[in-house]
Amino acid sequence: AGIGKCVATDLARRNARTILACRSRERGQAAVEEIRAATGNPAVVLRLLDTGSLASVRAFAGAVLREEPRLDVLVNNAGVTGLPFAVTSEGLEQTFATNYLGPFLLTNLLLG
What terms describe the molecular function in GO for this protein (predicted)? Predict the structure, then answer.
């Protein structure tokens, strides 16, 4: 939704292979189908990612590195705000993990 969906749609319009990294399979797949229909680009795909989970970040990055011949652009757009205090299963504060640690780890894992 929002800025991320707009960026993904613009990239798809430019005929880029576009990977939507989403927490929700249902919402993500709906966005993929909408973007494909709006752009005519069939190379829009969904991969599940929860930046609040470092294990999820590592799994996502590993899959991208294995499956994609190259990565030209990374847009770190996910974030949360206003959540009550919570600690992840990895012992990290949820908002800090989601907004900072996860994207930082993802970027570093995907650097060539």
Answer: oxidoreductase activity
